Each structure stands twice: as C-alpha cells, then as structure tokens.
C-alpha cells in the first residue's frame, strides 16, 4: 500500500544550478544572499512591454447553483515617467497607460479590475516630504481619477478598484489611503480606507494618513462580493477575517512592498488568508524602482539615498482551497487575468468547515480580555 | 539605479525536468497531477533510518539581553509495527523508538522536544471503531507514556511535549486529544487540549473527542515560553493569535495530515502564524502510510479501503521574520533539530510593529457583534 513518494521539495531544488537554487530558496524560504539573473525569455504575448499571464480556477459543478465565473484583472506597473514630473504630466501618463491596459483587460474578459496601491502617483511616502506629494490627493467620489475611470468602467462593463491618496475635504482636508470602487455601470459604489498603517523600514505612512475609519466593507457587485485589504493590512489576519465575516468572496490586496524584508512573506500571507477565510485573494505589488529627486534616510544606518529598493511585483491570486496562480514577474509591467468560480468559496467551507469550527465566541471573549490594562495572560509555571 | 532582478520563481522552475517542476508546483502551488520519484540519495547521517536535518536561526546581538538560544527537536515517525498489533506491543515498540531518538536528540543539544500528534498509537480515527483504539487513551499526568517520558526528560534535561489520546477519569472517562508538557526536571508541567476538531475527509474526530476546554495556555519553561497548537488548529488564525496574546515564543503544531487536500496548505499556515504573531512555529506531520485491519469508507464515493493515504511528513520550523527551515522528507522518519534565538521575537515586533498596529479593540467589538444572531454584515450595495 505504501507508494514511492517524492523525497522533498528541497531534493529537487538541489538539482538546480546553485544560483537558481539559492534564488528559489530566497523567495520560498528567505534570507539567502541576493544576486542577479538576466530576464527570462518567456513567450508571452506583450502589449507595450506588458506581460500577460492568465489562469483559471475551477470547482465542482453543483445541482442547484450554476457556476459563478468571474474574471479578475490585476495590474502591476512601473511609473511611466520620472517621479519628479509635474503632477498633471504624471496623471496624463498614468491615464494613458491605464486606458491601454484596460482595453487589453476588456479583451481578456475581465469583470473586476484592480490597480496597485496609490496607483496614479509615485510611492513617495518614504521621502517624508509633504510637497508636492500631498497634491496628488483627490476626493474619492469626485476626483479626476475617479471621473476618468467611471467612463471606462461603464464602457467596458467592468468593476474597477482604484487605490488612491484621498483628500477628505468634508473633514478638515485630511488625507487617507483609500480604495475607490466603481461599478460596472460607471457609478461610484463606495470606498474603503486602509485599516493598518506601517511604521517600518522606509515607511511611517502616518506622516501622511492615519488608520482607516471605514470598518470592513464588502461591496456587493454584479460580479460577486468584493473587498479591499490595502497593503500592510495583509500582515493582520484579523483584517482578513473582518472582510470574511462580512461575506467577501474576493479580497484584493493592492500593495507596494520591496526587498528582502517582505519578499519571503509575500507568497504566504494573502494565500493564508484565502485558506483561512475560504475566499479568493488577489495580491498586487508594484514593480520597478522609483528614484526621487531629493535624498532621504531610512533609519537603518545606511547613508542617504534616493530610492528605497526594488518593488518586486510577483502579483498573484490565491484560491479558497489553497492553490495559487503563477506570479507575475519581479521585473516587468504585468497583467494577471484569472477566471474564478466563486462557487468554490462555499464548497471549500463545506469541505473544510473552518467557519463552523472556529469558535468565534471564545475568541471574542479572549480579545475583549486581552485589551484590558489588567489582562493576565494564561501562563502555566511550575509552582515552587 | 534599476538592477537586473531575477525574473520569477516560475522561470527557474521551468528549467527543471517537467516531472520535477510539476512536483514543485504541486507542493508550492497545488493541484497538479500526482506522480512518483525514487528516494533521494542525500548524505545525511542516519540512525535506524532516521533522517537528521539541523539548522539555525539567528538574529541581531543586543546590548542589554544576551542571546536566548534554544534548540528544538521535532520528530516525525512511522509506526514501527502493524496498526493492529496489541496495544502493549505497540507501546513497547514506540517507547523503544522514542528512547533511541531522544538519545540522538540529546546528543544534538535539543532542549525542547516535540512528538507528532497522538504519537504513541496509530492515527485510527478514520476507522470510527471505538475498539481497540479508545484503549490507547491514558491519563495525562499519570499515564504510562507520561511516566516513561518523565524519566528521560529528567535524564536529558529536556522539555518534552507528548501529544496523546487522553482519558479524563475525573470527568466521566471522556477522551481528549491532548498535549502533555513535561519539564526538563522530569516533572509534569501541564497539558493542553486540541481546540479545533476536524469534520473533514476521513476524519470526524468528534467521534472520539470534543473541542478542548483548556484555553490557550503558555508554558513557562527554562527554555522559553512554549505552547501547542494541535493539528487542525493550524487552520485557525485566531487559535495562533490566542497563544500569541498569552506570550508564546515557540508554538508547536503536532499534526497528522495526508494528501492532496492539505499538502498545498502545509507550508503556508504555520509559517503565516509565525509571521503574524512574531514567534517561532514548529510544524510536525506524521510520515508514512498506516494500513488498518478492517476496511472503512470516506464519504467521497470511493470504495471501502484500509488506509486513508500517505502522511507526507515535511515537518519544518518557521521564524518570526518569515524564514523557514528546510522540511524533513515526505517519506522517512526524521528528526529536525533547529537552534532558535528567542530574541528574534521581540526584535521582529520592534521592526514590523504588528502588535502595535493590530487594533485589537476594533476586532474584539467586531467578533462580539458577528456572533449575535441579528448580526448585519457591513455590505455596500447600490441604492436603486
């Protein structure tokens, strides 16, 4: 009855040339030295150097529900022009790029499209400069980027998630890191503000905006119930859980993250969230290196510099059953098109039963207790 | 400033022979067809066909705290004799194996040792037979296995975690899936009962035992604060969080899991828990195939059979910074010896700040609300 099972992942990785093996170990396991390889010669169709990867997640047919197939599009893109270009020029270049990509996405059958975090501007929060970056902020419902995308969303019958820097003019002109949701008729549906704000590495983003006050909204669209966990919120299982409790079937995670600190985590977190909550997750990272005009320091002993490292792309989709798509490249603009059958969410819930077995009451009580100043952790010591 | 970054994990995997690549994709991404390879010819030292893998996790030196190095030992082992052997013989064979391995672990400097789930018996819960399997149950504090290990723990100055089937004679003779913690002086320190019980695939373990009633205890030992998340509890981020809230530095996850359903999840969940909670996790799976005397069915349309698939081993350790050890094999008995510096936990907390930024109050409130019968999910729809 015993079968000759494959020895291990490692035993196969060891067959690779040392450099390749080390790279895989770095990404999959973390913390090996960095090195470089030339670009791969893949044979993918390209549009303006846009890598296009497509894949499909399927599940069982059911008797009472038809399949609920939804195609998502995830875009990772470099800045088309220099970071210090005038804002109007940057916007123009971004809109040109976006228009072209959305046309491709439409041709690829995309129903729900998501851009990367703060997609229409440089990721300038490392600089700690307020000028000119705060000027990129715009009103969620009526700003130029929302207006621009509303037209295309209606034209292409596509829900579009547009993560921007938001200016809330109704409440003292404050900024937020916000995802705007535009429905497939070109109407503004709502917004969500980033729940967890990093103070790590090059980024204390609370220089610009605070922890979001929009809860964990789930947006009911014609293509399923969707939600947005913005960037650093992916490190927080409770944030993912919040969207799950509210009924999300797809949670997008538009991000901007670089280098050795986060790359070993990248393939783990959004994927774990898909598993734990039995929904789809779509992890989108920026790609490329953004160089700024003025130098800045990073609080890590290094000399001042003008960029904070390489956004490694590698955007991917993870499914409720733990499978995941190939990643987009670490180096190029890329569009990941994935067809999802949303019926998989409930099928996996029925198979694994995580929702039934999760004992939320016990944890509600524990979390309540743990936030009290007189919280006594449950520690077992030897009585002596 | 732009560097030639490596293209992608996939581009390197594509250099491998198709079979190898498919295997890696299966394990890392899931859901490719199964196939077989011969055993690898690794050059590891062996004792009674015991693969030994050792590794080390280190972190920065600090000014005020010396390094806190602790060596853990994780054992994955096949049954030494047939599942239907008499209980006394099975115990004897298991104790002989354990004694030998603990001697090796001691020679390897292990401070805290953990066995796989229900380590001293076949994983017979698929059979739904009460006889003879319930007879394996023993009292946590005074049972023969605890008595046996107390001597060795004292002799080797080693904390031992012994996951067993517990019989609670004080409360109506009920059974529990329990981990017993024996300290390095050979004294019983305490126990923890599995918090989440599966009803999936071949296992509705509630045929034998219910959800644990011991909370999320952390055991304060001379080698750090440890906890045990038993098997199916690894799918529940809140269970991992519970041990974190109580101060765990290392959480062991003794498991018993097989096949295509869980293998793509195996490398993700315990690793994500290490990241999210900034502690070490030690994931231990059984290895080998256990064949039973009487046939049973699995509720999946397949004919009756006598085994429920291959336990794929692949035990590993994950660190707070997201790095992980190589896995033990998918096929052989194995001992993973990992030296951890517990100082890494707080260092990662300071760097990433997940504990500071996690907004527990918000989630305590959400969890409270979500358990109410009149819970209204936060859903945004178009008003029409």
UniProtKB/TrEMBL annotation, chains A, B:
Gene3D superfamilies membership: Carbon-nitrogen hydrolase
Protein name: Beta-ureidopropionase
Any Pfam family matching the protein: CN_hydrolase
Organism expressing this protein natively: Phyllotreta striolata (Striped flea beetle)
Catalytic reaction annotation: 3-(carbamoylamino)propanoate + H2O + 2 H(+) = beta-alanine + NH4(+) + CO2; 3-(carbamoylamino)-2-methylpropanoate + H2O + 2 H(+) = (R)-3-amino-2-methylpropanoate + NH4(+) + CO2
InterPro entries: Aliph_Amidase/BUP, C-N_Hydrolase, C-N_Hydrolase_sf
Biochemical pathway: Amino-acid biosynthesis; beta-alanine biosynthesis
PANTHER family named in the record: BETA-UREIDOPROPIONASE, NITRILASE C965.09-RELATED
Family per record: Belongs to the carbon-nitrogen hydrolase superfamily. BUP family.
């Amino acid at each position: 009855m015993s079968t000759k099972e494959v020895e291990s992942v490692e035993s196969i990785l060891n067959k690779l040339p040392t450099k390749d093996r080390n790279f895989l170990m770095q990404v999959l396991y973390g913390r090996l030295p960095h090195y470089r390889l030339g670009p791969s010669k893949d044979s993918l169709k390209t549009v303006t150097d846009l890598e296009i990867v497509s894949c499909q997640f399927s599940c069982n047919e059911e008797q009472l529900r038809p399949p609920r197939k939804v195609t998502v599009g995830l875009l990772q893109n470099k800045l088309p022009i220099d970071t210090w270009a005038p804002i109007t020029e940057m916007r123009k270049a971004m809109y040109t790029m976006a228009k072209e990509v959305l046309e491709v996405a439409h041709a690829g059958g995309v129903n729900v499209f998501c851009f990367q975090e703060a997609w229409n501007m440089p990721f300038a929060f490392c600089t700690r400069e307020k000028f000119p970056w705060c000027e990129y902020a715009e009103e969620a419902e009526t700003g130029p980027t929302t207006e621009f995308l509303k037209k295309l969303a209606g034209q292409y019958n596509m829900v579009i998630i547009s993560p921007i820097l938001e200016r809330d003019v109704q409440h003292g002109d404050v900024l937020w890191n916000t995802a705007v949701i535009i429905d497939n008729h070109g109407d503004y549906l709502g917004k969500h503000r980033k729940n967890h704000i990093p103070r790590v590495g090059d980024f204390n983003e609370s220089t610009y905006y605070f922890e979001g006050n929009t809860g964990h909204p789930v947006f009911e669209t014609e293509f399923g119930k969707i939600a947005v966990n913005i960037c650093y919120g992916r490190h927080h299982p409770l944030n993912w859980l919040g969207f799950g409790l509210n009924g999300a079937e797809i949670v997008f995670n538009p991000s901007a993250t670089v280098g050795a600190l986060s790359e070993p985590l990248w393939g783990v977190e959004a994927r774990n969230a898909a598993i734990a909550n039995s929904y789809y997750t779509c992890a989108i990272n920026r790609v490329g290196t953004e160089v700024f005009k003025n130098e800045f320091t990073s609080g890590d002993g290094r000399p001042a510099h003008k960029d904070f490292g390489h956004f490694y792309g590698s955007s991917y989709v993870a499914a409720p059953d733990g499978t995941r798509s190939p990643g987009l490249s670490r180096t190029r603009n890329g569009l990941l098109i994935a067809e999802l059958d949303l019926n998989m969410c409930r099928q996996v819930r029925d198979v694994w039963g995580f929702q039934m077995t999760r004992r939320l009451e016990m944890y509600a009580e524990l979390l309540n207790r743990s936030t009290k100043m007189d919280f006594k952790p449950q520690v077992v010591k030897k009585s002596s």
